[in-house]
Specification:
This protein is of the alpha/beta class. It has a single domain, classed as Alpha-Beta Barrel (TIM Barrel). Helices cover 40% and strands 15% of the residues. Strand 3, helix 3 and strand 4 form a beta-alpha-beta unit. The longest helix is centred in the C-terminal third of the chain and has 19 residues.
């Protein structure tokens, strides 16, 4: 199935202060000198969305939020709605990241509701799925991820751009990565589930791989069939490292 251009998205998680924007300036400058062959996005904490959007203005770098509330507004102290993220300058939003699913007990149904809110506000969701180490060792990885895809992707996504990110929970921030064969197996299963859920247009949407992606392993991971980009954690905080991954995407 032919895919859209690859997407390399950086998830800063709970990292980054105003001083971190210097790295973004460097990234912007380097990409102006030699444009990327892929889409590039940065997803900073909510406190930096607006300032990062201003920093990358007039460049090809896209800006994303790391989460949003399913509700449009209300008495939800500390939360950020999709409209607030959009107003701050985001055009993308990460949803259902394993850290949200694990730490905040977010269900597939809640992730789907957030995706609806995002689409209604004009944000393109990056919906995350992935198995735990126990599920992988029990041979349940494909079944777990398939169920997450079927239940986390609302039907409204059939008519709008989005992405799915496969992030094996046990590989995030550990330095461990699945084998290339394991990555391909899951990505093919994700693609099949996306098409079953949303129809043939879902065959064009990128499936990102996330989990200890670095410049030295990015090329081989990005060459795996059905890998349509990467969701990058710590390496996206350093311009040189993130650029090293970007340059390996074609």
């Amino acid at each position: 199935m032919k895919q859209s251009v690859k997407l390399i998205a950086g998830n800063w998680k709970m990292n980054g202060l105003a001083a971190s924007l210097a790295e973004v300036e460097t990234l912007k400058s380097r990409l102006a000198e030699e444009p990327a062959a892929c889409r590039v996005a940065l997803c900073p904490p909510a406190t930096l969305i607006h300032r990062l959007a201003q920093t990358v203005a007039h460049s090809a770098i896209e800006v994303g939020a790391q989460d949003c509330r399913a509700e449009t507004s209300g008495a939800f102290t500390g939360s950020v709605s999709a409209a607030m993220a959009r107003d701050a300058g985001a055009t993308l939003v990460i949803l259902g990241h394993s850290e949200r699913r694990q730490e905040f007990r977010e269900s597939d149904a809640l992730v789907a509701a957030k995706a609806v809110a995002a689409v209604e506000t004009g944000l393109s969701p990056i919906v995350c799925v992935g198995e735990t180490l126990a599920q992988r060792q029990a041979g349940q990885a494909v079944d777990v991820v398939r169920t997450q895809v079927m239940q986390s992707l609302p039907l409204v996504l059939a008519a709008t751009p989005f992405a799915v990110a496969y992030e094996p929970v046990w590989a995030i921030g550990t330095g461990l990565t699945p084998t290339l064969e394991q990555i391909e197996e899951v990505h093919r299963a994700v693609r099949a589930a996306m098409i079953e859920r949303l129809g043939l247009p879902a065959g064009w949407m990128p499936i990102l791989y996330g989990g200890s992606v670095k410049p030295d392993n990015a090329a081989e991971i990005l060459a795996v069939p059905e890998v349509g980009g990467a969701l990058v954690g710590g390496a996206s905080l350093i311009a040189a490292d993130f650029l090293g991954i970007i340059r390996r995407a074609s």
